[in-house]
Specification:
Elements: H1 4-17, H2 19-30, H3 36-44, E1 54-58, H4 64-71, E2 75-80, H5 83-92, E3 98-100, E4 113-119, H6 128-138, E5 139-150, H7 157-167, H8 183-189, H9 207-216, E6 220-225, H10 235-244, E7 256-262
Parallel strand pairs: 1-2, 1-4, 2-3, 4-5
Antiparallel strand pairs: 5-7, 6-7
């Protein structure tokens, strides 16, 4: 049985000590592998006062989305478990509102944010259910969650499709594993994030686990897909990938999931979904 405390501590040490990890992620973001196109749409769709919507980036990493949120007119805050990552994010943020914190225990009052980002995090935590519980707590009624992570159903389209059929009716929320002994060394020696993709994943997360957790917390799923970053497609491949998302099983079998979910309001009309007309 996995010792959650030991596994969690090993993850913290990995991200704190491995500077190359964040450098390579930052390199990917500069090459266009990010979700700014969706982020801008979500921020524009937030209802807010004169000061702009409040956005929280849970596990802000390099600070890319804190910086982008500010550029799109939001008041952005970030948290990360790694002190090194917090320093990177602060250097990119206009206001430097980034702090070290555990995603399973957010240091904010309830109903504080219009939008919470949780991007490529769930595969790195031992308690994804706690992360979603905390995110739900700090979201305002009517606020939205933007969640993404690798869809770890298998290494080939065939295996992912077969597992999509079997796991569609599963109620599981996580599948933990320990990190390999040489993960830090392999990351330090890597020249691109692609070389070591998902080596640092202690939770073999998938779209079904994520949907289960989102719905258990009372959030309403407005949109999801399992497509890659748009930058990873040429025009024909992107068209075909969009077609696959319309098929009942294939829509669950892509390599990376994105979920937009809303916290219901107790009364009155909800906000218009920014995802109404597609991804």
């Amino acid at each position: 049985m996995t010792d959650l405390r030991d596994l969690k501590e090993s993850m913290r040490k990995f991200y704190e000590s491995n500077k190359n990890y964040h450098r390579l992620i930052s390199q990917q973001e500069r090459e266009g592998f990010h979700y700014d196109y969706l982020l801008e749409r979500l921020i524009r769709g937030c209802s807010s006062g004169d000061t702009g919507p409040r956005v929280l980036d849970v596990a802000s990493g390099t600070g890319h989305y804190v910086e982008s949120s500010e550029r799109f007119g939001a008041i952005a805050l970030g948290i990360d478990l790694s002190v090194h990552a917090c320093r990177m994010a602060k250097s990119r943020s206009r206001h430097g509102m980034v702090c070290q914190s555990d995603a399973e225990s957010l240091p904010f009052r309830g109903s504080a944010f219009d939008l919470v980002l949780c991007l490529q995090l769930l595969e790195h935590v031992t308690g994804p259910e706690n992360v979603l519980l905390e995110i739900t707590r700090v979201l305002k009624p009517g606020g939205r969650l933007f969640l993404s992570a690798p869809n770890m159903l298998g290494s080939s389209p065939f295996s992912r499709t077969i597992r999509a059929v079997s796991r569609r009716f599963s109620g599981e929320i996580k599948d933990l594993r320990t990190l390999s002994a040489d993960v830090s060394q392999r990351w330090e020696q890597a020249t691109s994030a692609k070389e070591v993709a998902d080596l640092d994943a202690c939770n073999r997360t998938n779209i079904f686990q994520a949907l289960n957790m989102v719905r258990r917390n009372g959030l309403v799923v407005e949109y999801f897909d399992t497509m890659r970053h748009p930058a990873k497609y040429d025009r024909l491949a992107y068209f075909l990938a969009c077609l696959r998302q319309k098929l009942p099983v294939m829509r669950y079998a892509g390599v990376n999931y994105k979920i937009i979910a809303r916290k219901p309001v107790s009364s009155g009309p909800g906000m218009e979904s920014p995802m109404k007309n597609g991804s």
